[in-house]
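Example (one chain per record):
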Amino acid sequence: MAFAKKTGNQRRRKKIIRPKICTFCEAGVKYIDFKDVEILRKYQTEQGKIHPRRITGTCANHQKMLAAAIKRARVIALVM
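Predicted structure:
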């Protein structure tokens, strides 16, 4: 099987990286409630893992609150 050799003439596409803005900061949220299941599910994978900050775009303070709220909701079986 023959592979095409990459030459220096081929251009690589650069990804345009947009700064992610924390949705909680925009909305002025001071506390993330563990009983608000709809919001918590948005920040979880199908397996129930918490999405990291680089994917969600939340700030450090809200990510900590979000993680704590998801963990509390898991304990009382509101989310998986």
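Caption: Residues 60-75 form the longest helix (16 residues).
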